[in-house]
Amino acid sequence: MSVINDSKFKKSILSALADEDMIQIIKHATDNPISGNDIIKLCNIPHSTAYRKIKWMLETELLTIKEIKFTNDGKKYTLFQSTIHSINVNMEKGGNMIVTATKNIGAKQFIAKRFLSMDIE
């Protein structure tokens, strides 16, 4: 586990943890890459909501694009994976929030700059 020092990334994690749909997306995208359609089905959320949240999670680097695939009839679909495997949040006296995370080793195209800015415990 590494401490998240990047305040923007820390806020992104906390925002995602406050949203039940995003918690479910992270849950389903942690161990294996998952398509947007599978997220819609497994999380039971509307299409537009799912893709709006996926877009935000990509922009905030909570998700990464693992792979882009094509079906036999030439349609393209994307597989997403969580960039973090586990998250811990602790609130200290005085209100200071300590967020620690473990990077998702399975995320092939993990955005390393976030974890390069962490302090290793």
Explain this structure.
By secondary structure, this protein is α+β, with helices and mostly antiparallel strands. The protein has one domain (2-120): Winged helix-like DNA-binding domain superfamily/Winged helix DNA-binding domain (Arc Repressor Mutant, subunit A, Orthogonal Bundle). 38% of the residues lie in helices and 30% in strands. The protein contains five helices and seven strands; from the N terminus they run E-H-H-E-H-H-E-E-E-E-H-E. The chain has a four-stranded antiparallel beta sheet with strand order 5-6-1-7, covered by helices on one side. A hairpin with a 5-residue loop joins strand 3 and strand 4 (76-82). Helix 3 packs across helix 4. The longest helix has 13 residues, at 47-59. The chain is elongated. 26% of the residues are buried.
Layout of helices and strands, plus pairs?
Elements: E1 2-3, H1 7-17, H2 20-29, E2 34-35, H3 36-43, H4 47-59, E3 63-70, E4 76-82, E5 84-91, E6 97-103, H5 113-116, E7 119-120
Antiparallel strand pairs: 1-6, 1-7, 2-4, 3-4, 5-6
Tally of domains = 1
Radius of gyration based on Cα positions: 15 Å
Order of helices and strands: EHHEHHEEEEHE
CATH topology descriptor:
Arc Repressor Mutant, subunit A
Low-confidence stretches: 108-121
Q: Sheet bearing the most strands, described?
A: 4 strands, antiparallel
Helix content: 25-40%
Question: What is the averaged pLDDT score?
Answer: 86
Short key terms for the protein model shown above:
single chain; 121 residues; alpha+beta; Arc Repressor Mutant, subunit A; 4-stranded antiparallel beta sheet; 3-stranded antiparallel beta sheet; 5 helices; 7 strands; 38% helix
